[in-house]
Design a protein that fits this description.
Elements (H helix, E strand, L loop, with lengths): L2 H23 L2 H4 L9 E3 L4 E3 H13 L11 E4 L4 E4 L2 E3 L1
Antiparallel strand pairs: 1-2, 1-5, 3-4, 4-5
C-alpha cells in the first residue's frame, strides 16, 4: 500500500473517532467539521438526510437530556470514495 494511502486511512480514522467524541460531548462547532459543509450526508438507523439536519437533531436531543454514547469499535474506510463505515452508520 502506498504511504499516502496509509496516511489517508489514519486521517479518516481520526475523523471517525472525533465524530463520536465531539457528538457525545456536544461540541457542535467541531462536530460540523467532519462533513462537507454543503453536501455532507448522514445515514444511521434513526436518521437519513443532510449532515446539517443530523447535527440539528443531535443537538436537540443533547439539549433535552438525551445521552447517546457512540463507541467506535469497527472501522472500514474506502479511501478512493471517502466513504466511511463505522459501527453501523454511514457518513460521507
Amino acid at each position: 500500500m502506498p504511504p499516502t494511502a496509509d496516511a489517508d486511512r489514519l486521517a479518516i480514522r481520526e475523523l471517525v473517532e472525533n465524530w463520536a467524541l465531539w457528538r457525545d460531548a456536544g461540541d457542535w462547532e467541531r462536530f460540523a467539521t467532519v462533513w462537507h459543509p454543503k453536501e455532507g450526508w448522514m445515514t444511521a438507523t434513526w436518521f437519513q438526510g443532510p449532515a446539517r439536519d443530523f447535527i440539528a437533531a443531535s443537538r436537540r436531543g443533547f439539549d433535552s437530556g438525551v445521552s447517546i454514547l457512540c463507541p467506535v469499535s469497527r472501522h472500514r474506510s474506502q479511501v478512493s470514495r471517502v466513504i466511511v463505515h463505522t459501527f453501523g452508520a454511514w457518513a460521507w
